């Protein structure tokens, strides 16, 4: 994370500059950012001054001056204007402002810092965080020194492009950087609090989600489809949207999932829609059997669920006259294919009725592999619209998938090498407390995921400061097992693996981590012994 020093009043900082600050905060700690800088120096026997929105320093890339212009910006007949809620206003030429600031700063450095090289160069650029520039300002200044809304997303590449354009070969030692900072800025470092960053991540993910929902438009003519996608690609969102569209057209819809917590979430989503029935498969079998007065054994083993449950469902649904027009199956990778066949058979039209299944083969924690019939349309979705890009990259590395290149920028996930034999859960408690008290998150935005029910029980006896750890549906920071939380998500996820590498080498840790890490939208912390760093997607050499 970049070292940021701000001299401006936070309450008066324009929204556009806050956006730029958030982007610059994602740079590595080699970068130093000085915001809202002003200086004065005697030049030519008189008092001279200068100012800049941003001065950015890097040992290998020297100094870069950035002038920021927010809102809508236009260039007409050689004059610059900005458009905002208060109307259209004439403004100064941002390219000229950046140039003037650069020359003033260079003169200041040569007077205030005698060691500053006489031939050293300072780069300058212009930032338009709210618009995409394309080629419309090319007459006013070279495009390589322009950072627009698209360039903000990969701010480091934009800064390197500016440095390359100006052929800046000036080098600064870490000591040089610190001395420049001591001249221009006080010693208080700031960065955007994580909750503010998370809100911006969520806004961008919403945009990506709307794009993903367009998938259903292309499948509208298909009555049988298998939608396959990795964690975070929006399969549950697509299932919900498909159910809503079918209901709007008068279909009686059965939406079935596997996990209890996801079932409760989906039930709440359709609580006021009488045309959509939501149920877990297991609950559906028991409900239909009860309504049909079919006796169920007291002890139900895996064989009964695999072989007997589908037959019970067929008989019970017929006795109850339960026959939906459409069946949608979320978490289909957790289903036996015989379960899906039984759901098809209870439909009003088993041959032509609408049936969509949504699955991620990599989340097959229960080892129930199946292939959809060749007559079904298969559609693969790849765009991650749940996780920020840094989290999506970690998730991909866990199971060896190609690293995504497109997504919402966000803070880097954190791996905490923790010896649970000595500190137990105190590190987890401390981080959770800091996220609430210092980073601005509500307890309901944070979920702790663990690998075993016994670990969840132990953690629920503790608290994060004054905030208790709790079960799903209670007030506090929720603690759940990875399996029970599968299919759900939270703004902040803390993954705890206390027994990894201690009790024994646990099988399928990568499959478990793939599910756990992908539950986080914006912020991710992983607590585990150092020996499990690589298996959990953080690489053996990282600190």
From TrEMBL:
UniProt cross-references to Pfam families, sorted A to Z: AAA_19, NERD
Domain of life: Bacteria
GO terms, biological process: recombinational repair
Domain spans labelled NERD: 16-110
GO function term, MF aspect, one: 3'-5' DNA helicase activity
Protein name per Swiss-Prot or TrEMBL: DNA 3'-5' helicase II
Originating organism: Crenobacter caeni
């Amino acid at each position: 994370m970049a070292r940021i020093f701000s001299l401006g009043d936070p309450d008066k900082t324009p929204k556009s500059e806050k956006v730029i600050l958030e982007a610059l905060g994602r740079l590595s700690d080699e970068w130093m950012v000085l915001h809202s800088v002003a200086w004065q120096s005697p030049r030519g026997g008189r008092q001279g001054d200068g100012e800049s929105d941003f001065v950015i320093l890097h040992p290998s890339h020297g100094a870069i001056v950035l002038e920021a212009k927010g809102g809508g910006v236009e260039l007409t007949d050689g004059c610059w204007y900005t458009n905002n809620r208060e109307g259209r206003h004439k403004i100064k030429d941002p390219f000229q402002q950046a140039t003037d600031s650069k020359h003033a700063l260079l003169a200041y450095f040569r007077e205030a810092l005698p060691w500053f090289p006489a031939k050293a160069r300072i780069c300058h650029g212009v930032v338009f965080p709210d618009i995409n520039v394309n080629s419309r300002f090319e007459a006013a200044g070279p495009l390589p020194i322009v950072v627009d809304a698209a360039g903000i997303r990969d701010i480091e590449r934009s800064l390197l492009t500016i440095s390359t354009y100006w052929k800046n070969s000036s080098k600064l030692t870490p000591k040089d950087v610190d001395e420049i900072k001591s001249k221009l800025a006080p010693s208080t470092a700031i960065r955007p609090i994580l909750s503010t960053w998370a809100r911006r991540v969520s806004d961008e993910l919403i945009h990506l989600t709307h794009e993903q929902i367009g998938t259903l438009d292309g499948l509208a003519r298909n009555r049988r489809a298998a939608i396959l996608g990795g964690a975070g690609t929006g399969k549950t969102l697509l299932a919900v949207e498909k159910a809503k569209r079918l209901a709007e057209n008068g279909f009686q819809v059965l939406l079935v999932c596997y996990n209890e917590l996801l079932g409760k979430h989906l039930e709440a989503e359709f609580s006021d829609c009488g045309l959509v029935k939501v149920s877990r498969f297991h609950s559906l079998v028991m409900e239909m059997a009860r309504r049909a007065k079919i006796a169920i054994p007291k002890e139900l083993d895996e064989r009964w669920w695999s072989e007997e449950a589908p037959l019970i469902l067929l008989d019970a649904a017929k006795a109850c006259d339960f026959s939906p027009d459409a069946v949608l199956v979320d978490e289909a990778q957790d289903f036996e294919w015989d379960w899906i066949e039984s759901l098809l058979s209870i439909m009003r039209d088993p041959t032509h009725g609408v049936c969509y299944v949504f699955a991620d083969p990599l989340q097959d924690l229960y080892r129930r592999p199946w292939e959809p019939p060749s007559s079904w349309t298969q559609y693969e979705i790849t765009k991650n619209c749940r996780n920020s890009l840094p989290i999506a990259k970690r998730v991909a590395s866990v199971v060896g998938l190609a690293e995504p290149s497109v997504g919402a920028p966000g803070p880097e996930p954190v791996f905490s090498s923790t010896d649970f034999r000595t500190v137990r859960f105190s590190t987890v408690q401390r981080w959770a407390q800091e996220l609430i008290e210092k980073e601005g998150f509500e307890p309901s935005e944070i979920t702790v995921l663990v690998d075993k029910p016994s670990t969840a029980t132990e953690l629920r006896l503790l608290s994060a400061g004054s905030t208790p750890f709790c079960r799903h549906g209670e007030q506090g920071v929720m603690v759940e097992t990875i399996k029970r939380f599968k299919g759900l998500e939270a703004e902040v996820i803390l993954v705890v693996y206390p027994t990894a590498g201690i009790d024994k080498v646990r099988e399928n840790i990568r499959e478990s981590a793939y599910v756990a890490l992908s539950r986080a939208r914006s912020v991710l912390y992983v607590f585990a012994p150092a020996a499990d760093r690589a298996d959990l997607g953080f690489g053996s050499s990282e600190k």
